[in-house]
Amino acid sequence: MKILIADDDPISRRILEANLLEWGYELMVASDGLEAWEILQKPESPNLIISDWMMPRMDGLELCREIRNMEKSKYIYFIILTAKGEKKDIISGLEAGADDFLTKPFNQEELKYRTRIGERVLNLEHRIMELANIDSLTGLLNRRAFMEKMEQEMSRTQRENNSFSLILTDIDHFKNVNDTYGHQIGDLVLRRFTGQLKTLARPYDFLGRYGGEEFLICLPGANGLQAASTAERMRRQTEDMEIMLPDDSQSIRITASFGTACYSVESEKDVDSLIKRTDVALYMAKNKGRNCVCNSNHSELGKGTTVSFNDPPNEEA
Ligand SMILES: [Mg+2]
Predict the structure, then answer these.
(1) CATH number for the segment(s) 2-133
(2) Which one of the listed residues 213, 239, 242, 266 is annotated catalytic?
């Protein structure tokens, strides 16, 4: 775990450094509040700060207030160090948004355990964030988290003038699985299906649950053809997969339909329009008799043409 130390007094800084390093923490060090503030603007900056109160340029209270005003998805745990041990000082520190305080000269054991408390709070926060973003059945991102991540991907693609593609897939006749075998087996099928989708995704692709048996796969950097070929591999692997019932009495086979679309910087303004195109492609795949891939290319969509990988190769225009 990384900790940021902000203190203008070199001796106090060194004592903090020596102790925290000994307890296994990684450190970043600033000699005043402004320097600490600059460090916090960088990616991968620490989420736990131990900051002195009295410092030139920007003091600990100002630093804390600035941090509380900034928009950051991760929480920053702030411990303020102060020689001012009076009640009213402690209260103004807490008022500024500090989580905890230590009075100087501090006791080593106290520093250790107050740091541990901060670490525990941050771990809990991390766990809560995880639970809020993940679909508990499949372990994939839930719809909201997927959309958020996709929006980030879209801005990155616009900045770097790159491409990215989307796959939307839906298990064919899934209702029959639930009706025939019950919802527990239905859940098992969803887990097996998404598990095999994951095996074909690259490490930087991300998957999300869109609805009941509908799933989205975002492929950063992939063009339309690459997305369609990934979808085709997923389709084939799904068809070949045998899902054994828990009592080993029999196995189930499923198929899935896939729609793919490639994001176009010129014509797409939001994630919704890209999802809509992917949805149209999926709808076409269903209409073609299911268990196939349809690729909705933006320029082709107007003409209503699709590419199906189940069609003979000469039709792949
Ligand atoms: Mg000071």
Answers:
(1) 3.40.50.2300
(2) 213
